[in-house]
Amino acid sequence: MRIDGENGTLLSPGSSAASNSSADEMIENENHSLRDRMADLEKKVHEQTDEIMCLRSTLADVLRRLSTVEGAGRLTTTREGPGRATPTKDQGGRGRHHNHDNREVFKRVASSSSSNIPGRSVSTSHIRRGTHYQSTSSLYSDGHSSSSVSPAPSPSPTQAQTHAPTPHALTTHAQYVRHTPTSPYTSPMRTAQVGALSKRWASTSDFATPNRVTHAHFPTPTNSQLTRRPNSGSLHNLTNLRNATSQLNLTRAREAQYNPDEGVVKLYLRGRPLNLYVPTSVQETYSPTSPSVPPAAKLKLEWVYGYRGRDCRNNVFQLPTGEIVYFVAAVVVLYNVEDQMQRHYLGHTDDIKCLAMHPNKLLIATGQTAGHDRRDARSWRLNPPADHLSPEAEEWPHVRIWDSVSLNTLHIIGISDIERSVACLAFSKADGGSLLVAVDEAPDHNMSVWDWSRGERGYKLLETKCSADQVLAVDFSPVDRSTIITCGKNHISFWSYDSGMLAKRMGIFENRERPKYVTSISFTDAGNVISGDSNGNLLIWQRGGNTVYKMVRGAHDGPVFSILVQKDGAIITGGKDGQIVEWDRELERTGNTIEIPEQFGSPRVVTSGRGTQLVVGTTRNCVLEGTFTFPMRPVMQGHTEELWALAPHPGHHQFLTAGYDRTCYLWDTMAHTIVWSKDIGEPAQSAAFSNNGEIVIIGTTSGRWFVMDAETREMYSQHQDGNEPIQVVKFSPNGQYLAVGSRDNNIYVYQVSEDCRKYTRIGRCQGHSSFVTHLDWSADSQFLQSNSGDYELLFWNGGLCRQIVQTAQMRDVEWASNTCTLTFATLGIWPEGADGTDVNTCTKANHSSVLATGDDFGKVKMFNSPACHQKARCLEYSGHSSHVTALGFLHDDSRLISTGGRDTAVMQWVVSATSSSTSSQH
User: Fold this and answer.
1) Which residue of 62, 108, 552, 714 has the smallest Cβ count within 10 Å?
2) What does the pLDDT look like over 779-793, one tens digit per residue?
3) Cα dist. 192→597, 652, 695, 833 in Å?
4) What are phi and psi of 738, to 5 degrees?
């Protein structure tokens, strides 16, 4: 027994033990709470230190600039490239008056900052762009800065709140907006209200609040503590100070920051810092702003697999040279089937939508949609640029007329006249092709007639509203120069061009069945119009009239997609029913028909080839060749839906692709043909070959992945990991493990046995806060590195499926591949203004120090590897019109394969250190 000293009561030994236990528990809870509070305070101090140091550097530079301004009496206007500007003279005058009232605030804050925090210098070196290469630049973001690194596997509630991303940090893809120079003293609030931030002139997260709309005129909580809540006058002055200085120092605030003592370079993506550890061997000499050189290796487009027939019409022709001309993505392909040679016209900047051949069979006109860097089309039409042939202007919808022999561009027309994209084109025939008609896909479907040969930009003779409904085809009469026919949804229209005016007459169906769509038109040698419609009927409209002369019901079971009138007067039609039918002059069947196999799709366009041959483009993106006697054979095949999976063969000149069309193709890069195809029954997202090349793993969008024989296409097994798409699959270098990265934020690791035919799950790597995007194995097959959609770089012990939290230990690990886009070796691949999603894919060559990347703007870029310096110089290549989803070098690095997402194109590039860069942009 003992006496409680406070109240004098007697305590039994049992009650004494319980009291001690309770006291210990309370002390432990208090200690735990204290540790959490200390951790939070340390984090806040670290954030404040960063902001104070940046603010001090900013203010010091502004004071220096103000001194220079007062001494010189004016500001000099300079430009350092698109998207960057310094104040003009008039702006400078206003700026001096604006900042004169705030100089005392500058000095007080600078003095306060310098008395507590040591200064630091920030590099402002710039690299000039060369003529044959481009450079990327620093990353700038409007997101709120956070000093947190990738979260630990099990964060505490306090940490979870600390790491919660801001609303704009959750944006998956930031729309790119061209910069329009503004006053350097424009408020960041106004910039945010106008739209997305410009590349250079925007507030950094060091001076912005998490929500600019509601807190635009108030300091951030951290800065409130820094300034100790100044009075309203000081607060107003400080706000003006930020508005003035944030514009001038955005570059410095967002450049990668290197700490040589710790060997860490901090990269910012949408305001979120990512710590990248510099390898020990280069710590002493490394600087993120060091100059770099473009790679010696260059690319040349050798082959393009694919064709766009799923939604385009009248886009296959045979040239006198024997070449078949068609397009896919932003490339026009001239394909000589006999010689197995391709040439490529690369003048366009985005999706080509239509193609027309001049009556001389040598000139070609192609029309495109608006490019990736487009602004609002209506504002463009109201305020067009002075130079319509500038690179910026060519991002807009236009028509290019070029020589099919030399591939030289002769004329570019329609810039600032075409609002959305070019739906269809046609040259005049009766006068030798002096006119060109183009139809816009804008809501009014404007039709314009051009004297295309007058000047570099042609001369628009007239423009008129064509139809409120979709227009599918346009053509000139071969006998009447002034007659134009258009057709589409609910209409066929007959236009007469006279004295600069167009007179329109609608087609009259009288008591005949009116079709929902008139899908195709052509002309007989007498000038009569033949039309096919969505009901499968053929109609003849007499020359000069707008009423039906003759009708053939049920020519096809479904829409008539194409009508070809041959030189001998015979008529050939192709329909959605998969049949190609021959008719005589009177539209009587001759008995000759061709049945297109279902795997190739329906004939979208039928055109004349050599002799009696027919060339057919299909709805499943295939180009076929054959006659009524000999069966059709594919000369080009392609995917029909979005394409993501790519896997180069580890030992042969072959590669595998798979996409959302549920089809896998194995391609031979030397023969330029398909080795085999396989319908897997589900949309495919990823693929990988085993190290011996005998097994293919295919990941799908449903979380299921297949094990398939690479030669026999036999399915050995299938596995399920979650219900989200399998983003990436990769074998370890020793072949003993398979890593499966899923969109459910997890990486599943499997033990591989029985010659890669049996898979046993080891465990699951958990820790990412967003979906897994890329992963790599270490050269010794022990470790994994992975990226996520939340801009994380995490490391794992592959055999144990445990996260390695001490990431500094991984700085010297050698990686077997480099497909992760967020690593120290890829710091320099991020372009100016990137938001973390712009670069979709990257890959390093197997035997050389070259790194290739693919981005959202259809560009393939080549860097020296490692690309560890910001503003790394690169070689840039165009061809894709959609986001480049995957890249892969062949096993001997002789070629690079790239896949486009929605453009469904697969491009094969020759890698050469001596050849010139890719075909010139004509």
Assistant:
1) 714
2) 999 999 999 999 999
3) 55, 52, 51, 15
4) -130, 125
